[in-house]
Write a structure and sequence with these properties.
alpha+beta; Hypothetical protein af1432; Beta Polymerase, domain 2; five-stranded mixed sheet; binds manganese (II) ion
Length: 719
């Protein structure tokens, strides 16, 4: 078992500036915190984080990553808190350990087996610092190395399968090929030991039989390069057992038929020499068509650089050859870690910039254009920051755009769930429907049969699906409102002209207007597409309008529309959707309690005026546009309205503050204020105040009138 001294020694091989105290105190801390805990194998628990740190030291990782590895299980499995870690090791380490713990928690959630890809994305999205993911992969590698300590075969299988589905692709994505291959082999050994064994046997047989061939090939290649004056290191490399197994499955071939189980690698000093070496190889042996790839001029998005070719080799055997520089080779084996190892320390910039450069460069690499034939599109770490991955109660992993809310989640599950949702639980806690979801949250939607989508949802949802369903619902509901409105308007004209309303006579003109049902006609009248009087004229083309002369003043008009009976009672404006079909006139600012009248405006719906508003005179000639409306039942949901006052006060210190104090003391809120006139002695203002109703506004007026320095206060009638 490795002790902290070996660890420090190992790190010193690539980091001569290391202050061993940091590593040692992390070691002592982990040992103390995990005291009394043991692994399934019976070993003291603290040996595990130390081994994980050792794996990362082999990758030449920075000290922060290694300290994180030593502490990686303390938050999850011991009494240590984030604050403890922050105090003892600083914020950076505390954040990193916290990041690893979050991944560990996510890992333990049950989820659907088929959702590996989403789960990988979730892990990437949660690893805001790539070092978090690297520690997690090293953690998994050590757990796989010691998996025999778990006695239950079923559990070993589950962990191995998860390793293949989740962690192997992640290791590959960030370029940790050595870790990827070892994880693969360890999982293979658990899941299919017989196949692995037989491939091993076959390989040793070939090795014994064909060792001459490999040696011959290497020798011949070496001779070739010597004669051309290029210094090259040539390695014959066996493919891994798992990759051979996969190829056997993919191509459905028997082991004997697999020709290229050996790969040769030619390592040179510079990129130029790579192309020279390629020329030498292609000059000496016939190349196999379609097998040439140049990842030096166009590296893979994860940074992989190499030339691949396959030739009919010295002994007329197909051999796969990779040509690359030593540096490219290290990068291919160690990925991110090598990238860091090469770049760090060579640049004389500040310590912090240096520390994070490799991370930035990795992101740069990942953001580069991608070769379409590769599966690398999803490697962009930042890509995953645009998304959020959350669990359903059953463990389904749902992908949503970042900023998504429980309503988006509900619609993602099913449109019915969205339409009927009344609330949500996030991680078992009731949460508002506009809450922003976080990675790894578990969401439960609460539905009610009587619920319908609320127009306010549209303000916070982010998915197109949710938005389009909400809009569709509102459109339908709006149509219902327009139907009620349009029908009432038509009924009114019938009455004015002395007819009793009759649905049948309306349906007679459907064809003429190219509409399907009476409701279409009403909806068109209500929304202002059709004029009610035109419809009436179409129904009774020969009718002579009774009302020839319109009342000339607003008050007369009001008297005319006022007489009511049951059939055309005022339409409660509460029944119309606020802000959609109904507007409050800015000239008179009607308040609940005022007597009001509605004016239908083409394409805009209804505008509400006070019955004594002077603007109404403008509409004296079009009585069909007048609509009896009432405030409806105002008992529920107090809504505030804007009332406008004309105020004149004396030009004295404190007058303005007297005014605003009285207004706010009486529960009014000034929303707009305009000076309409000023003289040496007086100021005249127009003041808009949020109030509940007329009574409320009248109270404020009375209070203002009783206030010192106020000269004149009244409601603004028209302007
Ligand atoms: Mn662990």
């Amino acid at each position: 078992m490795i002790e902290q001294y070996d660890l420090v020694k190992q790190i010193k091989t690539y980091n001569s500036d290391l202050q061993p105290g940091f590593i040692e105190s992390a070691y002592q801390y982990a040992k103390k915190m995990h005291e009394g805990q043991f692994r399934s194998s019976g070993e003291p628990y603290y040996t595990h984080p130390i081994e994980v740190a050792n794996i990362l030291a082999d990758l030449k990782m920075d000290v922060g990553t290694i300290v994180t590895a030593i502490l990686h299980d303390t938050l999850e499995d011991t009494d240590a808190t984030y604050e403890d870690l922050k105090n003892a090791f600083g914020k950076e380490i505390a954040d990193l350990v916290n990041g690893v713990s979050k991944l560990t928690q996510i890992e333990s959630k049950n989820r659907e087996d088929k959702q590996a890809e989403n789960f990988r994305k979730l892990l990437l999205a949660m690893s805001e610092d790539i070092r978090v993911l690297i520690v997690k992969l090293a953690d998994r590698l050590h757990n796989m190395r010691t998996i025999e300590g778990i006695s239950l075969e079923k559990k070993r299988h589950r962990i191995s399968l998860e390793t293949l589905e989740i962690y192997v692709p992640l290791a590959e994505r960030i370029g940790l090929h050595k870790i990827k291959e070892e994880l693969e082999d360890l999982a293979f050994n658990q899941l299919n030991p017989e196949a692995r064994e037989s491939i091993s046997n076959r390989l040793s047989f070939l090795r014994a039989e064909g060792s001459n061939i490999v040696k011959t090939i290497i020798k011949e290649l070496e001779k070739l390069f010597n004669s051309e004056g290029i210094k090259a290191e040539i390695i014959g490399r066996e493919k891994t057992r798992y990759s051979i197994w996969k190829k056997m499955q993919r191509k459905n071939v028997a082991f004997e038929q697999l020709s290229d189980i050996m790969a040769f690698r030619i390592l040179v000093d510079t990129s130029d020499e790579c192309y020279k070496a390629l020329g030498i190889i292609h000059g000496a042996y016939p190349s196999v068509p379609g097998r040439f790839k140049d990842y030096i001029s166009t590296p893979k998005p994860n940074g992989y650089s190499s030339i691949h070719t396959t030739v009919m080799g010295p002994s007329r055997q197909r051999i796969e050859i990779q040509i690359r520089t030593h540096k490219m080779n290290d990068q291919a084996d160690l990925g991110v870690a090598a990238h860091w190892a090469y770049k760090d320390g060579k640049d004389p910039s500040t310590k912090d910039a240096k520390k994070y450069r490799w991370l930035r460069e990795l992101l740069d690499i990942l953001e580069q254009e991608q070769a379409p034939e590769d599966f690398w599109e999803n490697t962009k770490l930042e890509l995953f920051q645009d998304q959020v991955y959350v669990f359903s109660p059953k463990g389904d992993l749902i992908e949503l755009p970042s900023g998504a809310t429980p309503v988006d989640f509900a619609y993602a599950i099913h449109s019915d769930v969205g339409d009927k949702c009344v609330g949500a639980k996030i991680n078992s806690r009731i949460a508002p429907l506009n809450s922003r979801l976080s990675n790894g949250d578990q969401i439960e939607v609460i539905t009610s049969k009587t619920q319908t989508p609320s127009p306010t949802w549209e303000r916070f949802v982010v998915t197109g699906k949710a938005r389009s369903h909400i809009r569709k619902f509102i459109r339908n509901q709006q149509r219902d409102e327009y139907i009620i409105l349009g029908k009432a308007m038509l009924q009114k004209i019938f009455k004015q002209e002395g007819y009793s309303f009759n649905e049948k006579t309306v349906s007679n003109i459907l064809e003429q207007f190219k509409l399907n049902e009476n409701n279409d006609i009403y909806a068109n009248i209500g929304s202002g597409i059709l004029i009610a009087r035109d419809v009436f004229k179409a129904i009774f083309p020969d009718h002579e309008t009774k009302i020839a002369k319109r009342p000339s003043t607003a008050m007369d008009q009001a008297v005319m529309v006022k007489p009511l009976n049951d059939s055309d009672a005022p339409i409660p404006i509460k029944g119309l959707i606020p802000g959609m079909a109904v507007h409050f006139a800015r000239c008179c600012h009607p308040l609940p309690g005022d007597r009001i009248v509605g004016i239908v405006t083409t394409g805009k719906g209804v505008t509400i005026h006070t019955i004594d508003c002077e603007t109404l005179e403008t509409f004296a000639d079009t009585p069909e546009r007048w609509l009896d409306v009432s405030w409806g039942d105002d008992s529920d949901s107090p809504q505030s309205h804007v009332g406008r006052l004309e105020i004149t006060f004396q030009n004295e210190p404190g007058a303005l503050s007297n005014m605003s104090t009285v207004i706010s003391k009486n529960g009014g809120n000034i929303v707009n204020l305009k000076v309409t006139n000023r003289s040496i002695d007086f100021w005249e203002l127009s003041v808009d105040i949020n109030v509940d109703d007329t009574k409320h506004l009248n109270n404020i007026i009375a209070a203002l009138r009783a206030t010192p320095l106020m000269s004149y206060i009244d409601r603004s009638r028209s302007r």
